[in-house]
Amino acid sequence: xxxxRSPIFNVMERAARKAARSLVxxxxxxxxxxxxxxxxxxFVSTADLQAERILRAELEKARSNYGFxxxxxxxxxxxxxxxxxxxxxxxxxxxxLHSIPHFCISIALQRDAEIVAGLIYDPLRDEMFFAxxxxxxxxxxxxxxxxxxxxxxxxxxxxxxxxxxxxxxxSYLKMLAAVMGATAGVRRFGAAALDLAYVAAGRFDGFxxxxxxxxxxxxxxxxxxxxxxxxxxxxxGRDELKSGNVLVGNTALYEPLGRLLRGAGSPASAAKxx
Length: 274
Ligand code: IPD
Known about the structure:
By secondary structure, the chain is α+β, with helices and mostly antiparallel strands. It has two domains: 142 residues, Fructose-1,6-Bisphosphatase, subunit A, domain 1 (Fructose-1,6-Bisphosphatase, Chain A, domain 1); 119 residues, D-Maltodextrin-Binding Protein, domain 2. Helix content is 40%, strand content 23%. The protein is built from nine helices and 13 strands. The chain has an eight-stranded mixed β-sheet with strand order 2-1-3-4-5-6-7-8, with helices on both faces. Bound molecules: D-MYO-inositol-1-phosphate. D-MYO-inositol-1-phosphate binds next to strand 3.
Protein backbone atom coordinates (compact mmCIF):
# COMPACT_ATOMS: atom_id res chain seq x y z
CA UNK A 1 0.00 0.00 0.00
CA UNK A 2 2.95 2.32 -0.70
CA UNK A 3 0.75 5.05 -2.16
CA UNK A 4 -1.30 5.32 1.02
CA ARG A 5 1.54 5.37 3.53
CA SER A 6 1.48 9.10 4.00
CA PRO A 7 2.34 10.58 7.43
CA ILE A 8 -1.33 11.39 8.03
CA PHE A 9 -2.38 7.81 7.22
CA ASN A 10 0.19 6.54 9.72
CA VAL A 11 -1.18 8.83 12.43
CA MET A 12 -4.79 7.76 11.79
CA GLU A 13 -3.93 4.08 11.46
CA ARG A 14 -1.97 3.99 14.72
CA ALA A 15 -4.84 5.63 16.61
CA ALA A 16 -7.47 3.34 15.05
CA ARG A 17 -5.53 0.13 15.75
CA LYS A 18 -4.94 1.06 19.38
CA ALA A 19 -8.61 1.97 20.01
CA ALA A 20 -9.71 -1.16 18.10
CA ARG A 21 -7.77 -3.43 20.50
CA SER A 22 -9.80 -1.99 23.35
CA LEU A 23 -13.11 -2.36 21.46
CA VAL A 24 -12.41 -5.95 20.43
CA UNK A 25 -11.51 -6.88 24.01
CA UNK A 26 -14.77 -5.32 25.24
CA UNK A 27 -16.81 -6.95 22.46
CA UNK A 28 -15.72 -10.29 23.89
CA UNK A 29 -17.22 -9.32 27.25
CA UNK A 30 -20.51 -8.09 25.78
CA UNK A 31 -21.56 -11.60 24.82
CA UNK A 32 -21.51 -12.67 28.48
CA UNK A 33 -23.62 -9.69 29.50
CA UNK A 34 -26.52 -10.47 27.10
CA UNK A 35 -28.02 -12.84 29.63
CA UNK A 36 -27.72 -10.52 32.62
CA UNK A 37 -30.92 -8.75 33.68
CA UNK A 38 -29.43 -5.27 33.28
CA UNK A 39 -27.94 -6.11 29.89
CA UNK A 40 -24.70 -4.69 28.55
CA UNK A 41 -25.80 -1.04 27.97
CA UNK A 42 -23.66 0.62 30.67
CA PHE A 43 -20.69 -1.55 29.83
CA VAL A 44 -20.96 -0.62 26.13
CA SER A 45 -21.14 3.11 26.80
CA THR A 46 -17.98 2.78 28.91
CA ALA A 47 -16.30 0.85 26.07
CA ASP A 48 -17.32 3.55 23.60
CA LEU A 49 -15.94 6.33 25.84
CA GLN A 50 -12.71 4.43 26.40
CA ALA A 51 -12.20 4.02 22.62
CA GLU A 52 -12.86 7.73 22.15
CA ARG A 53 -10.31 8.61 24.88
CA ILE A 54 -7.67 6.44 23.20
CA LEU A 55 -8.34 7.98 19.79
CA ARG A 56 -8.16 11.49 21.15
CA ALA A 57 -4.94 10.85 23.06
CA GLU A 58 -3.24 9.24 20.04
CA LEU A 59 -4.36 11.91 17.56
CA GLU A 60 -3.38 14.68 19.98
CA LYS A 61 0.04 13.13 20.54
CA ALA A 62 0.71 13.35 16.79
CA ARG A 63 -1.03 16.68 15.99
CA SER A 64 -1.30 18.62 19.25
CA ASN A 65 -3.02 21.72 17.86
CA TYR A 66 -5.86 20.19 15.79
CA GLY A 67 -9.49 20.52 16.90
CA PHE A 68 -12.00 17.70 17.43
CA UNK A 69 -15.63 16.87 16.72
CA UNK A 70 -16.29 13.57 18.49
CA UNK A 71 -19.49 11.59 18.88
CA UNK A 72 -19.31 11.32 22.66
CA UNK A 73 -17.46 14.44 23.81
CA UNK A 74 -18.59 16.92 21.14
CA UNK A 75 -16.62 19.80 19.71
CA UNK A 76 -13.34 21.29 20.93
CA UNK A 77 -11.35 23.91 19.01
CA UNK A 78 -7.64 23.44 18.34
CA UNK A 79 -4.98 26.14 18.37
CA UNK A 80 -4.37 25.58 14.66
CA UNK A 81 -7.84 26.81 13.59
CA UNK A 82 -7.72 25.10 10.16
CA UNK A 83 -7.73 21.39 11.01
CA UNK A 84 -10.06 19.19 12.99
CA UNK A 85 -10.66 15.48 13.45
CA UNK A 86 -14.21 14.11 13.10
CA UNK A 87 -14.32 10.89 15.09
CA UNK A 88 -16.85 8.14 15.68
CA UNK A 89 -15.16 5.73 18.11
CA UNK A 90 -17.87 3.10 17.61
CA UNK A 91 -20.15 3.22 14.59
CA UNK A 92 -22.66 0.41 14.85
CA UNK A 93 -23.23 0.82 18.58
CA UNK A 94 -26.52 -1.10 18.53
CA UNK A 95 -24.83 -4.02 16.77
CA UNK A 96 -22.05 -3.98 19.38
CA LEU A 97 -24.61 -3.89 22.17
CA HIS A 98 -26.32 -6.98 20.74
CA SER A 99 -23.07 -8.90 20.04
CA ILE A 100 -23.59 -8.53 16.27
CA PRO A 101 -20.08 -8.56 14.78
CA HIS A 102 -20.41 -5.53 12.49
CA PHE A 103 -19.04 -2.22 13.76
CA CYS A 104 -16.13 0.12 13.08
CA ILE A 105 -14.10 3.18 13.99
CA SER A 106 -14.38 6.19 11.70
CA ILE A 107 -11.85 9.07 11.60
CA ALA A 108 -11.83 11.98 9.15
CA LEU A 109 -9.51 14.95 8.89
CA GLN A 110 -11.05 18.26 7.87
CA ARG A 111 -8.91 21.12 6.58
CA ASP A 112 -10.86 24.37 6.41
CA ALA A 113 -14.21 23.29 4.94
CA GLU A 114 -12.90 20.20 3.19
CA ILE A 115 -12.46 16.56 4.26
CA VAL A 116 -8.93 15.66 3.15
CA ALA A 117 -8.45 12.19 4.68
CA GLY A 118 -10.77 9.45 5.90
CA LEU A 119 -10.22 6.10 7.59
CA ILE A 120 -12.79 3.44 8.51
CA TYR A 121 -11.52 0.39 10.39
CA ASP A 122 -13.48 -2.82 10.87
CA PRO A 123 -11.40 -4.59 13.52
CA LEU A 124 -13.18 -7.96 13.37
CA ARG A 125 -12.48 -8.39 9.65
CA ASP A 126 -9.24 -6.41 9.83
CA GLU A 127 -10.38 -4.21 6.94
CA MET A 128 -8.83 -0.75 6.90
CA PHE A 129 -10.57 1.52 4.40
CA PHE A 130 -8.67 4.73 3.71
CA ALA A 131 -8.68 7.66 1.30
CA UNK A 132 -6.79 10.86 0.90
CA UNK A 133 -8.10 13.65 -1.29
CA UNK A 134 -6.68 13.36 -4.79
CA UNK A 135 -4.75 10.16 -4.03
CA UNK A 136 -7.45 7.48 -4.18
CA UNK A 137 -9.13 5.01 -1.87
CA UNK A 138 -7.78 1.73 -0.53
CA UNK A 139 -8.76 -1.23 1.60
CA UNK A 140 -5.64 -2.69 3.20
CA UNK A 141 -3.31 -3.15 0.20
CA UNK A 142 -5.93 -2.94 -2.51
CA UNK A 143 -7.17 0.09 -4.44
CA UNK A 144 -10.93 0.61 -4.20
CA UNK A 145 -13.28 1.12 -7.07
CA UNK A 146 -17.09 1.46 -6.97
CA UNK A 147 -19.11 -1.19 -8.81
CA UNK A 148 -19.64 -1.04 -12.56
CA UNK A 149 -23.28 -2.17 -12.37
CA UNK A 150 -25.48 -0.09 -14.69
CA UNK A 151 -29.00 -1.44 -14.22
CA UNK A 152 -30.99 -0.40 -11.16
CA UNK A 153 -32.76 -3.79 -11.35
CA UNK A 154 -29.40 -5.50 -10.59
CA UNK A 155 -28.40 -3.14 -7.80
CA UNK A 156 -28.04 -3.94 -4.09
CA UNK A 157 -28.69 -0.81 -2.06
CA UNK A 158 -27.85 -0.27 1.60
CA UNK A 159 -29.81 1.98 3.91
CA UNK A 160 -30.36 2.89 7.54
CA UNK A 161 -33.89 2.50 8.89
CA UNK A 162 -35.05 5.19 11.34
CA UNK A 163 -36.10 3.90 14.73
CA UNK A 164 -38.09 5.01 17.80
CA UNK A 165 -38.65 8.76 17.68
CA UNK A 166 -35.96 9.33 15.05
CA UNK A 167 -37.07 10.52 11.63
CA UNK A 168 -40.34 10.74 9.74
CA UNK A 169 -41.21 7.06 9.41
CA UNK A 170 -44.01 7.35 6.79
CA SER A 171 -41.79 9.39 4.41
CA TYR A 172 -38.94 6.95 4.87
CA LEU A 173 -41.21 3.98 4.17
CA LYS A 174 -42.25 5.51 0.85
CA MET A 175 -38.63 5.81 -0.21
CA LEU A 176 -37.87 2.28 0.96
CA ALA A 177 -40.87 0.90 -0.95
CA ALA A 178 -39.67 2.58 -4.15
CA VAL A 179 -36.18 1.10 -3.79
CA MET A 180 -37.52 -2.35 -2.85
CA GLY A 181 -39.67 -2.40 -5.98
CA ALA A 182 -36.89 -1.38 -8.35
CA THR A 183 -33.72 -3.15 -7.18
CA ALA A 184 -32.23 -6.60 -6.56
CA GLY A 185 -32.33 -6.03 -2.81
CA VAL A 186 -31.99 -3.70 0.16
CA ARG A 187 -29.59 -4.24 3.09
CA ARG A 188 -29.61 -2.70 6.60
CA PHE A 189 -26.34 -3.68 8.29
CA GLY A 190 -26.34 -1.07 11.06
CA ALA A 191 -23.07 0.87 10.66
CA ALA A 192 -23.36 3.79 8.25
CA ALA A 193 -19.58 4.25 7.92
CA LEU A 194 -19.21 0.64 6.77
CA ASP A 195 -22.18 1.05 4.40
CA LEU A 196 -20.25 3.88 2.72
CA ALA A 197 -17.01 1.88 2.69
CA TYR A 198 -18.87 -1.04 1.07
CA VAL A 199 -20.16 1.24 -1.69
CA ALA A 200 -16.56 2.34 -2.28
CA ALA A 201 -15.56 -1.34 -2.44
CA GLY A 202 -18.25 -2.16 -5.03
CA ARG A 203 -20.11 -4.47 -2.60
CA PHE A 204 -23.16 -2.20 -2.48
CA ASP A 205 -24.15 -0.16 -5.54
CA GLY A 206 -25.63 2.67 -3.49
CA PHE A 207 -26.64 3.80 0.00
CA UNK A 208 -29.13 6.29 1.42
CA UNK A 209 -30.02 7.38 4.92
CA UNK A 210 -31.56 10.43 6.57
CA UNK A 211 -30.40 12.28 9.65
CA UNK A 212 -26.85 10.96 9.99
CA UNK A 213 -24.19 12.85 11.96
CA UNK A 214 -20.96 14.28 10.52
CA UNK A 215 -18.79 11.76 12.42
CA UNK A 216 -20.78 8.86 10.86
CA UNK A 217 -20.19 9.98 7.28
CA UNK A 218 -17.21 12.35 6.91
CA UNK A 219 -14.63 9.62 6.26
CA UNK A 220 -16.97 7.47 4.17
CA UNK A 221 -18.04 10.25 1.82
CA UNK A 222 -14.41 10.92 0.89
CA UNK A 223 -13.69 7.20 0.50
CA UNK A 224 -16.68 6.82 -1.87
CA UNK A 225 -15.64 9.84 -3.96
CA UNK A 226 -12.00 8.74 -4.13
CA UNK A 227 -13.21 5.30 -5.27
CA UNK A 228 -14.97 6.97 -8.21
CA UNK A 229 -18.48 7.17 -6.75
CA UNK A 230 -20.84 10.10 -6.37
CA UNK A 231 -22.23 11.55 -3.14
CA UNK A 232 -24.72 14.25 -2.24
CA UNK A 233 -28.02 14.90 -0.49
CA UNK A 234 -31.07 12.80 -1.40
CA UNK A 235 -32.89 15.95 -2.50
CA UNK A 236 -30.06 16.82 -4.88
CA GLY A 237 -28.34 19.36 -2.59
CA ARG A 238 -24.63 19.43 -1.75
CA ASP A 239 -24.70 19.94 2.00
CA GLU A 240 -24.79 16.27 3.00
CA LEU A 241 -22.15 16.55 5.73
CA LYS A 242 -24.30 19.13 7.50
CA SER A 243 -27.80 17.79 6.82
CA GLY A 244 -26.84 14.12 7.22
CA ASN A 245 -29.31 13.42 4.45
CA VAL A 246 -27.07 11.18 2.37
CA LEU A 247 -27.17 9.48 -1.01
CA VAL A 248 -24.15 7.77 -2.57
CA GLY A 249 -23.85 5.52 -5.56
CA ASN A 250 -21.70 4.28 -8.37
CA THR A 251 -21.38 6.52 -11.41
CA ALA A 252 -24.22 4.94 -13.38
CA LEU A 253 -26.76 4.46 -10.58
CA TYR A 254 -26.37 7.60 -8.45
CA GLU A 255 -28.76 9.67 -10.59
CA PRO A 256 -31.45 7.00 -11.17
CA LEU A 257 -31.42 6.15 -7.46
CA GLY A 258 -31.79 9.84 -6.57
CA ARG A 259 -34.73 10.20 -8.97
CA LEU A 260 -36.37 7.12 -7.49
CA LEU A 261 -36.05 8.46 -3.93
CA ARG A 262 -37.17 11.99 -4.81
CA GLY A 263 -40.14 10.61 -6.73
CA ALA A 264 -41.20 8.64 -3.67
CA GLY A 265 -41.42 11.33 -1.06
CA SER A 266 -39.87 14.25 0.65
CA PRO A 267 -36.49 13.47 2.16
CA ALA A 268 -36.27 17.00 3.57
CA SER A 269 -39.21 16.40 5.87
CA ALA A 270 -37.93 12.93 6.70
CA ALA A 271 -34.53 14.32 7.66
CA LYS A 272 -35.32 15.53 11.15
CA UNK A 273 -34.08 12.91 13.54
CA UNK A 274 -33.54 12.94 17.26
C1 IPD B 1 -25.51 4.72 13.82
C2 IPD B 1 -25.18 3.73 12.70
C3 IPD B 1 -26.44 3.24 12.02
C4 IPD B 1 -27.29 4.36 11.52
C5 IPD B 1 -27.63 5.32 12.65
C6 IPD B 1 -26.35 5.85 13.29
P1 IPD B 1 -23.77 4.96 15.85
O1 IPD B 1 -24.33 5.28 14.35
O2 IPD B 1 -24.34 4.32 11.76
O3 IPD B 1 -26.15 2.42 10.90
O4 IPD B 1 -28.48 3.86 10.96
O5 IPD B 1 -28.38 6.38 12.10
O6 IPD B 1 -26.70 6.72 14.35
O7 IPD B 1 -24.78 5.53 16.80
O8 IPD B 1 -23.68 3.49 15.96
O9 IPD B 1 -22.44 5.62 15.89
